[in-house]
Write a structure and sequence with these properties.
The protein is about 35% helix and about 15% strand. It is α/β, with parallel strands linked by helices and about 450 residues long. The chain has two domains: about 65-80 and about 345-450, Alpha-Beta Complex (Aspartate Aminotransferase, domain 1), CATH 3.90.1150.10; about 85-345, Type I PLP-dependent aspartate aminotransferase-like (Major domain) (Aspartate Aminotransferase, domain 2), CATH 3.40.640.10. It starts with 7 loop residues before the first helix and ends with a helix.
Length: about 450
């Protein structure tokens, strides 16, 4: 759609219609101190050709990310995406599809979302999945609000190893919902200390929120937590950021989880500067009508022909406001279809092989770093493809050193968790070659020698 500016006469007519004489009157509700007092310092106008040339020059300054060794994780993971995935979801039928309110003209989109839901339930071991939410942070926050509705209790025990951004989102959602958040500390091995769940104080919990692998990369003992939560009568919300881990880990649904949610970015979605991503959400059948978002179901018409429809969409647009479970308006349909295409392409065995590759690459890198002077593996718990390293000196300076040598280092978690000292989250996936892993170790060793 082209942008065609309006004329001065059209502006006058619009102002007259709303009962104003000047455009400034439209902004009277904005305090004077927040208003712009001068014109924006914009460059002179350019022709279309000049703009295109200018943008091309700017783009040439970017480093090719896919060719740069990268060890970032923390919820955004770089994985190999089979070429068939972007080719399939790039088809016009998927790219331009609107919200499938009219099933008679939306069967393709609805079937693709139904397939996505089916594969997510198989992966998580849960009976019901919705058609996706915006991202992992929203999914976890919505899980807390849902658990409050189901349990009718305000208190939640949340692992300190939950991704920090998720915790912040929960706090934002719960600020005016009378929700009480209790932190569960960490053990020396990086797993969540669940002693609180064995105390009398846990009897009035609505739910416990555990992430596995957690933010520090440690795999939690969901099975033991599932047994303990039964004694308290609370719900178990299991959060997963790295869905590839379910290629080899036991599904949370088989470990007594009541809600399994998180981000499915690693299922075929590129890192892409942080989005758009894909929030997934699964529940037990007993809590179906309290689940946010929408559910696509399979049915038959009056002639017995199979078809797909929006089975459930409990938001205020569709039902009475007081009955709405959330104000979520839509889903990440194209991202969900991408995940479905990715899972279908790999299949059960392919996903397992991919998961094993991640484990082996990370284990190799972890063992090499553990042998370096000045570097230590901060937590001893089992990990998947991400782990925490204590480094000599500032993580920020180390990352600057790595970047100057053509490597993107791990996440600096020192500011968020100062009690653990100078720590870096390091991630290795199937995209990291043996040469890249060795190069990373050599650079760490060289930096360590400079520090000492």
């Amino acid at each position: 759609m082209h942008y065609i500016p309006m004329t001065e006469e059209e502006r006058r007519q619009m102002l007259k219609t709303v009962g104003a004489t000047e455009i400034s009157e439209l902004f009277e509700d904005i305090p004077e101190s927040y208003r712009l007092k001068q014109l924006l310092k914009l460059p002179e106008p350019m022709s279309e050709w000049d703009v295109l040339c200018h943008l091309k020059k700017l783009a040439e300054k970017n480093e090719p990310f896919d060719k740069t060794p990268c060890f970032l994780g923390g919820g955004s993971y770089r994985h190999c995406i089979p070429s068939v995935v972007p080719a399939l979801i790039g088809r016009g039928e998927f790219v331009t599809a609107y919200t499938p309110y009219q099933p008679e003209i939306s069967q393709g989109t609805l079937q693709a979302l139904f397939e996505y839901q089916t594969m997510i339930t198989q992966l998580t071991g849960m009976p019901i999945a919705n058609a996706s939410l915006y991202d992992g942070a929203m999914a976890v926050a919505e899980a807390v609000l849902m658990a409050q509705r189901v349990a009718k209790k305000p208190k939640f025990a949340i692992s300190k190893a939950l991704t920090p951004g998720y915790r912040t989102t929960i706090e934002t959602y719960a600020r005016h919902q009378n929700v009480i958040l209790i932190d569960l500390p960490l053990n020396q091995d990086g797993s969540t200390d669940i002693a609180y769940l064995q105390s009398p104080d846990a009897n009035d919990l609505a739910a416990v929120v555990i992430q596995s692998p957690n933010y520090f990369g440690v795999i939690e003992d969901i099975e033991t937590i599932g047994l303990l939560k039964q004694n308290t009568g609370c719900l178990l919300i299991t959060v997963i950021n790295e869905m590839i881990s379910l290629g080899i880990l036991k599904p949370p649904g088989e470990l007594r989880a009541d809600i399994v949610c998180g981000d499915a970015q690693s299922l075929g979605l590129p890192v892409s500067y942080g989005g758009p991503y894909l929030g997934f959400f699964t529940v037990r059948e007993s809590a179906l009508r309290q689940m946010p978002g929408r559910v696509v179901g399979m049915t038959v018409d009056t002639e017995g022909r199979q078809g797909f429809v929006n089975t459930l969409s409990t938001r205020e647009q569709h039902i009475r406001r007081e009955k709405a479970t959330s104000n979520i308006c839509t889903n990440q349909a194209l991202c969900a279809i991408t995940a479905a295409a990715f899972m279908a392409t790999l299949g059960k065995q392919g996903l397992r092989e991919l998961a094993l590759l991640n484990v082996k690459k990370a284990a190799y890198l972890k063992s090499k770093i553990a042998s370096l002077d000045g570097f230590d593996i901060r937590f001893s718990g089992p990990t998947f493809n991400e782990f925490t390293v204590s480094v000599p000196g500032s993580v920020k300076k180390l990352n600057e050193y790595l970047l100057n040598n053509g490597v993107i280092g791990g996440i600096d978690a020192s500011d968020q968790f100062p009690e653990y000292g100078n720590i870096m989250l390091v991630c290795a996936t199937e995209t990291n070659t043996r040469e890249q892993l060795d190069q990373f170790v050599k650079l760490l060793a060289a930096y360590g020698r400079e520090c000492f």
